[in-house]
Amino acid sequence: MTPEDLFHGLPKGRLVCRAHTLIYCRKCYVDFTFTRAPRLFRRPDDCTHMRSNNLSCLKEVHIFLSQPARTGTVRRRSSRVLPTRFKPPTPNTTPLEVFRADHSRFRFCRYVNRNDSTQGLIFTDGACLDNGRAYAHAGWGRLEIQGPFGDEGAQTSNRAELRAVIAALNFRHWPGEGFKSLVFATDSEYVAEGATEWVKKWLINGWRTSFGAPVKNQDLWEALLGEVERMKEEGLKVQFWRIGREFNTEADLLAKEGAMESAPEVFTRQFGIIC
C-alpha cells in the first residue's frame, strides 16, 4: 500500500479511518489532523467526523509522509516556553533502564517511562559527511537546503541534529497518544545544552554569542522553540537528555543513511501514520 492509495478519492484531501470515520482515532492509532488547513495539528476534541468508504482501518505498516511547510505552519519562538533538562536517577543511568519498549498500547514500539506511562523517549541524531567542507552532505533523514522560514542553511552536523528534533516533534500528535512529556535522548552537546542552557543567554543577547557573533542556525533554534511552545499549548512538555554515543547507535546509523540522500530544496514537515 502506498500513500497515494490512502489519499485516493477522499474529499478535499482529507483522511479518516474507515472503521470509525474519525480524523483522529484512538482505536486505530491514526492521526490525520495534519490534513486540516491552515493548522497541521489539532487537539483530539477538535477532530471532525467524516464519512468515507475509501480508507480501511489502519493496522501495521508504517508510512512516512512529508509535505512542503506552508506559511504559518512553522512557528517562531516567543520565548514564553523553553525546554528543560531531563534528570536521570543517577549520572550513569542508561536510557533503557528508565524507559522500556512498549508494544501494548501502540501499533509500533514506543519507549515509555517505566514509572510514568505519560512520559515517552525519542532517540535523535544528525550526521554530516565531509562536515565543514564546501561539498558536505548532512542528514537526519534528509536535510533541506532551505530552512523553515526560507533562509538558506549550511549542510552541517549541528544543523542536522537540530532538524532531527524538530521532525520528531512534528512526526505524531504526541498528546493524543497519552503522553504529557517527551524526552529527547541525544549525544549532541550542541542540542542538549543549547536547548536547555545556552539559548537563555542567546535570547537575552539578541541571538548573539558571548563573543558578539551571530548565533549559528538561528532559524532552526527559533523553529525548535516555537514547536516547544506549540507542544506546551497541546499539553506536552519537552525535555532533553544528553546520552553517550554508545546508546544512540541506531539513530546515528539512520542519520548517516539520510546524509547519503540528495538534499531537498524546500523545508518539509514530516508525518508518521500506521496502516
From TrEMBL:
Its EC number is 3.1.26.4. It catalyses: Endonucleolytic cleavage to 5'-phosphomonoester. One of its GO terms (biological process) is DNA replication, removal of RNA primer. Keywords: Endonuclease, Hydrolase, Metal-binding, Nuclease. SUPFAM superfamilies: Ribonuclease H-like (SSF53098). Belongs to the RNase H family. This is ribonuclease H.
